[in-house]
User: Which sequence fits this backbone?
């Protein structure tokens, strides 16, 4: 089972969603307060399971409605995803993946692990 780990950042707090094996599968932006960080977690829990996947690495890709996972390539040529809420705000981002398959597995892991993940503060 996954867990959200809330931790201090330079100018506020952020969360990491960790899979059952302890690997970080998604991270948040930095929030100004613990309350807004927890709202971000609630948004991931609500949006991730129903979000469509938009593969922006293919030419002429089909645009999906929010909430959605956007798959894109970074400057290093690795695959990454970002989860956008219904309002279009980015609520979670991934690390870089070497293969598209790994990136899609990461999305599936967020969808599965976020729903009933426990929330831990300050670890």
Assistant:
């Amino acid at each position: 089972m996954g867990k959200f780990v809330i931790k201090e950042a330079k100018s506020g707090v952020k969360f990491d969603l960790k899979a059952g094996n302890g690997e970080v599968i998604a991270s948040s932006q930095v929030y100004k307060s613990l309350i807004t960080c927890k709202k971000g977690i609630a948004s991931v829990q609500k949006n991730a399971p129903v979000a469509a996947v938009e593969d922006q690495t293919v030419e002429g890709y089909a645009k999906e409605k929010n909430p959605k996972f956007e798959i894109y390539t970074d400057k290093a040529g690795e695959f990454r995803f970002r989860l956008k809420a219904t309002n279009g705000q980015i609520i979670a981002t991934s690390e870089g993946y070497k293969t598209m398959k790994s990136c899609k597995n990461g999305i599936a892991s967020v969808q599965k692990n976020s729903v009933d993940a426990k929330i831990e503060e300050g670890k």
